[in-house]
Amino acid sequence: MSDKTSDPTRLSPLEAAKRNPLMLGLFLPIQSGAWSPSTAPRGTSWTFDYNARCTVMAEKLGFDLVFGLAQWMGKGGYGGEMKFREKATDPLLVTAGLAALTERILLVSTVHILYGWHPLHLAKFGATISEMSGGRWGLNMVTGYKKSEFEMFGLEQIEHDQRYVMADEFVSMMKRLWSEDENLTVDGRFWKMKDAFVAPKPAGGKCLLVNASSSGAGLAYAVRHSDLIFVTSPAGANLDAACEALPAHNRKIKEAAAAQGRDIRTLINPHVICRETEAEARAQYDAILRHQDPVAAENFYRTFTGGDQTSWKAATREQWTIGGNVHIVGTPAQVVEGFMRLKQAGCDGVQVNFYDFIPDLEFFGARVMPLMREAGLRLDAPLAAAA
């Protein structure tokens, strides 16, 4: 890979992505079953090869970023005949592998930083992947909320707001390791280090920082540290309801960031089901529900609506079975209209997922993205055409 980070006139990958009126990301299916506990026919796979194909295709189509979530599941995953999400790869290692296969797209890894990590670990690993990718790596910081996950690591579950106090110290120390050019000694409340040092530094002195928060403590952390925030609809996955609730939610985040002199972009996660006709798209939606694994679907729904987090509470069991935070179902023109509505509701980008990823992504690239450019939501051309 050529060294593109030394050119002072070159925009950072994040700044290049922010030129688009609507940022566009792909939520990678690195867990078996992806987002839908359903056995309706599809080829979606958790394997690295499949996710690499999705990522390379997304880059060629002009997507700005790909993102993988992290989870820690016991045998059988969420259960049912399909053992939903039992198989899951690690997003930090997946994005490192994707660095050598891509040139432009941002690569975002989710890490549960309170599950035994030290800031020096992630500062070093992040700086390494940043160098491997030409400054394209980002960290989606999560604190964890499932008691079962903490117990896997032999830990007691930490109280909700306290998790963000700890995250603030962790990320502050990590950022100092990325930016300061001397040995660093810190005697913190939760982590300590003596004469710690990281070199090389990430491009621009830091890596992209992301998180998904809805609570007061989580948003207070996010506006101090994050460049991107993955928001969730306070009103569930119905597009009409979401677009009524999101303007106030987005406004609250951006006003809090502005009060600290920071410019933060918000992205939301639509599950997109797009076909040539609305009837075909609705038929696919119904097929996913009709073929749901009832045990897996129930466990998935109960887990995400039963924790001490504030996100996802309004989504119904049916909406969780489809997956994604907002559902956009219809023709290519209707999908673009849905994206436009989310932008008007204050979202700066969408992080899409699909049911059958590769064919759905191919159709999206051929039929939806040209309409997004016509609508003024995207200013870029596909990578191959831009060379």
TrEMBL record:
A Gene Ontology molecular function term of the record: monooxygenase activity
Domain of life: Bacteria
Keyword Oxidoreductase: yes
Annotated CDD domains: Alkanesulfonate_monoxygenase
Keyword Transmembrane appears in the UniProt entry: no
Domain Luciferase-like: start-end pairs: 24-348
Keywords: Flavoprotein, FMN, Monooxygenase, Oxidoreductase
Gene3D superfamilies in UniProt: Luciferase-like domain
Database matches in InterPro entries: Luciferase-like_dom, Luciferase-like_sf, SsuD_RutA_monooxygenase
Designated name of the protein: LLM class flavin-dependent oxidoreductase
